[in-house]
Structure formats: C-alpha cells, structure tokens
C-alpha cells in the first residue's frame, strides 16, 4: 500500500462516492424497532389544501408513516411526533433537553423509589371527560403489565423497556398518584417525557381497536381522520385545551385550526412540495438538498442538535475484530471530519466516543479518534496485517483483510463512504443492505461481522442508550438488546447498573465517565458522526423550532394569512 498516494486522493474518492449517491433520493428514515401499522383506520379523501391557500390549515410533510396512533404501542419517532400533538404527558420537553411539568401540577420524590404526582384539575380529554388519577394509573399499567394491548393481537407494550424500573402506580385520590419503582431511577423525568396519558373509560368501552381507529387524548389537537396505512392524518384544534406546560408559551389553544400530516417518502419530493407551497414544514432534509432551500426567501431552514449517533459496530468475537488493535486502527483510518463535510455538508459533529456529545453525561475529556493513517498502519502491522504482495489489500497469513458491512438503506450514503475510505486504506469492504426486521435476529445472534447503524439518544441520558449498545447481557439473548458488536466488559456492565440507580449526579457522572473511557479504549465500533436535525418551513410559519427528539410541537405554530 502506497500510503502517500492514498492520502493524496482519498478526498477525491469520497467526493466521487458522494456525487454518485446524490443522484439517488434518500430512503425514508427507518426506526430501531419496526411494527406493521394497524388496519382499520378511518379512510377519508385527501384534504385539498395547499400551504399557500389556507392560513388556518397547517400541512406537515413526513418522511415515513407513523406505525400507530396508540401512545403505548410503538418505539417510533414519527409516530411520537404525531401522537404528541394529540396527547400530553405528565411532563414534556422543550426543543432541547429541558423537562417541564405538563399534566402534572407537582412531582415530589417521597424517597429514592417512591414518587408522588399531583395532577392538574379540569383537564379534559377530547370527548369532554375530565382526566383523573384513574387515567394515569390505567396508562402506565397498559405499559408495564403484560398482554394489555389486544389489537391486532394480544401483546405487551413495546414501551415497557423505557420505564422498566416502574413496578406500579397507586391511586391516592382523584388527582394524585404514587409511583413505586424497584430501584432508584435518576432519569425518570427524561423518560416520562415519552409516555402520554390515555382515557381509561373510553378505551375500556371501545377496546384497543376502537381507540386506534379514533384516538382521544388531552393534547392541543384532536383526531379527525386518517387514511389506511396512515399516509395522511388529519387533526383539528381542541378548543377546550387546558394550555399545556404552564412555563412554556403559549398556554392557550393552538393557533391553527387544522393540521394535516402527509407522508412524502422521497426527500427530493418533500423539498419540491415545500418550494411549491404544498406543505408548510418538512422533516429529514438531507444536506445535499439544502442548496435548493437556502437563499429562497419563501423558505426557512432550521436545525437542532441531533440525537442519533452513527457508528459501525464490529463483531468483537470474530477475527479480525477480536483484536483491539485492529478496531482502534479502523477508528484512526476513517477521516470523520471529511465525512462531516462531504456527506453532511458540515451539519454534523464527530462522535467523541460511545455517547452523543449532547448527552447530559458525556465524558468531556474524550476526544474523537483523529484521522491518523500512520498510527492505524502501525497498529495493523503490530497485529500482523501488512500488504505482503503489494496488491493494495492488507493481508495476514495469506488471508486478505476483507469483511462485509451490513446496514439499512437509510444509511447508504454514510455506509458506502466509510467502505470507500476503508477500501482505499487497504481493507476490502462489501456493503449489504437489509430490512431491520430481517437483520436484527442475525445481529443479536452474533452472525454478522460489522453493522453500520445509529441508536436514538432522545432522552439525553445514558439509560436506555448506553445500556442498549454496550451492556453485554439481556436475559434470553447472548448480548445486550442492541449490542450488535457482542462487546463484553464486566466492569462496563457493573458501571451501567450503577449508573441506572445512582442518585447523586456527580457520582453518576464519574460512573459514566469511566464506562465511556473503557468503551472508547476497547473500540467495539468505529465512532463516526452525529448529524444535526434539519427541517425547513415556509416563511409564513412562525413560532416553530425543530426539536432534538424530532418532535414537531404544533401547539406553538402560527401561520401568516
């Protein structure tokens, strides 16, 4: 391998990759967990509204359909952004990471495992009934108890893992409840943001199917209709809305009369629809399409810190990735700064390690692995990998350094760019694309060599994120629930458990600092980048800000006539 030649035209190779990819529209954003949408939604003809023709109707272009409108039956960001405009929770989050009381009037920890919640009085569901403690108890029992969702078949809530320490919720009186946890749970507030309150009496009367077909919440908008498959969901303002979080303006009913969520899978088509005035807001704007929007005085582009770190996990139980020197070398061999510029147009940051740099407990002493080919080749040579026959591919004991990187279609641009850079570094990489539901069991079984993916960090807390990716064991599985590298370090496992139950924030920071350092040093993944959340709107839209957790809070939004 001629290292100087490589370093001289590496950037040109990546530019070629990017140019080839730019001809293809990115696929809709996939979720970490997939489910089929429930049938039976009320079908209505499309509302013939354009963004420029009606100042009372707001149209939002989504990249993918929500998988359900049931707050207890998904692990899907698109579903949550639609649902959280119809349903409120005990607490909510601002556009970054701050948590605010919403349906809860007050929250008090009685002790380390007991939390009392006093509810706001006079809050109405969309059918006019008042929300009470019974609804809160029912909401959480639907999540934490097995077999509480009976449509399309009897199953348990996929959200149970988000609040796994919660053992029970006790009704104290009409407007207060007590939460009982099986251990101290420091991130309770951050994770309760993602649990919305549902009406007990209504669901008991109509069943899960009836609720899914016509959902009722306490949020600023109420359900009107949805097409089959949820390609279009129509909501209208709830005039009796209590106003939402009292310290987050506005605290009145929503500004617009009607909201239409419309699925437009192709990114280029979403951008064209925004430019044509057919929609008001679009999500998931790829950086390569930004030149079509920036400089247009009819359009506003806004960003928020991202919450979906990207990495390539390496199976540490298979050669050559069972050698830590090889894994570290690949981190040095990939120029992450170049990826930021060429793939994301500068709208991303390099990962400093196994946590997002915006996580509340990131180890700030860690610096990203720098691009350092000399150090990479030194480590590889130490591990026995050299280009012995000068064919441009590293080899060891007569075997070329060759592996397959598996990924999803949504990660195509990044995966092919990373593969191209490694290829030019002397490593033969084949990229293969999968549906997540197909590849997930193979990954959990330890059958794949490398997997490029991301994992949501929208709670801004290591719980649920660090545990998913770097903890080594979940009952019934050989590795953690999303530990696709098969990484195992007993000290990291211990620290993960300690971090989930330690109340003192300084001690939690020390715990997670140590855990991050260990994972960083042992490098079970190439830590790549964290893209920004990029969204755009018509200039007629006001009081709109993109959120780091991808939620579009339409309660705030107004339209100019």
Describe what you observe in this structure.
- This protein is an alpha+beta fold.
- The chain folds into two domains: 57-303 and 534-559, Periplasmic binding protein-like II (D-Maltodextrin-Binding Protein, domain 2); 312-531, Dipeptide-binding Protein, domain 3, CATH 3.10.105.10.
- Helices cover 27% and strands 20% of the residues.
- The protein has helices at residues 3-22, 77-83, 133-144, 188-192, 200-213, 267-275, 324-333, 336-344, 373-382, 412-424, 436-444, 466-470, 490-501, 505-522, and strands spanning 57-62, 91-93, 99-101, 104-111, 114-119, 166-173, 176-181, 221-226, 232-237, 258-263, 281-282, 299-304, 310-314, 348-350, 395-396, 399-400, 402-408, 428-434, 450-454, 525-527, 529-531, 533-538, 541-542, 558-559.
Question: How is this fold's topology laid out?
Answer:
Elements: H1 3-22, E1 57-62, H2 77-83, E2 91-93, E3 99-101, E4 104-111, E5 114-119, H3 133-144, E6 166-173, E7 176-181, H4 188-192, H5 200-213, E8 221-226, E9 232-237, E10 258-263, H6 267-275, E11 281-282, E12 299-304, E13 310-314, H7 324-333, H8 336-344, E14 348-350, H9 373-382, E15 395-396, E16 399-400, E17 402-408, H10 412-424, E18 428-434, H11 436-444, E19 450-454, H12 466-470, H13 490-501, H14 505-522, E20 525-527, E21 529-531, E22 533-538, E23 541-542, E24 558-559
Helix pairs in contact: 1-8, 1-10, 7-9, 13-14
CATH class bucket of the largest domain:
Alpha Beta
Name of the CATH superfamily of the largest domain: Periplasmic binding protein-like II
Q: Which structural class is indicated by helix and strand composition?
A: alpha+beta
- What's the alpha carbon Rg, rounded to whole Å? 24 Å
Dominant shape: globular
